[in-house]
């Protein structure tokens, strides 16, 4: 009984702090019903085209399109992605990323990112 309880606590700790499995919501970048595993420990060194999960109460899945310091063009105007997202965070990794969520693009600060996502599988229903 003690070994079953210990195994349950270990699995609970890993699911809470290291990895989580999410279902892709409707109108997202991936197909509805896809499952992704999120590595919550991989929160640095993001590259373009990485899948990430972000958000506080509602978790969204998106693909990184521009990194901090990159220049993007909207119409005839050019913008630079900020290299510092806010003054109150004071984190050395506090940057903003341009994220494609399928139905639009958002600027997401580093502290809202839950982790890097990896596509697991698609359910046919």
TrEMBL record:
<keyword id="KW-0645">Protease</keyword>
<feature type="domain" description="Peptidase S26">
    <location>
        <begin position="3"/>
        <end position="82"/>
    </location>
</feature>
<dbReference type="Pfam" id="PF10502">
    <property type="entry name" value="Peptidase_S26"/>
</dbReference>
<comment type="similarity">
    <text>Belongs to the peptidase S26 family.</text>
</comment>
<keyword id="KW-0378">Hydrolase</keyword>
<dbReference type="InterPro" id="IPR036286">
    <property type="entry name" value="LexA/Signal_pep-like_sf"/>
</dbReference>
<dbReference type="InterPro" id="IPR019533">
    <property type="entry name" value="Peptidase_S26"/>
</dbReference>
<dbReference type="InterPro" id="IPR000223">
    <property type="entry name" value="Pept_S26A_signal_pept_1"/>
</dbReference>
<protein>
    <recommendedName>
        <fullName>Signal peptidase I</fullName>
        <ecNumber>3.4.21.89</ecNumber>
    </recommendedName>
</protein>
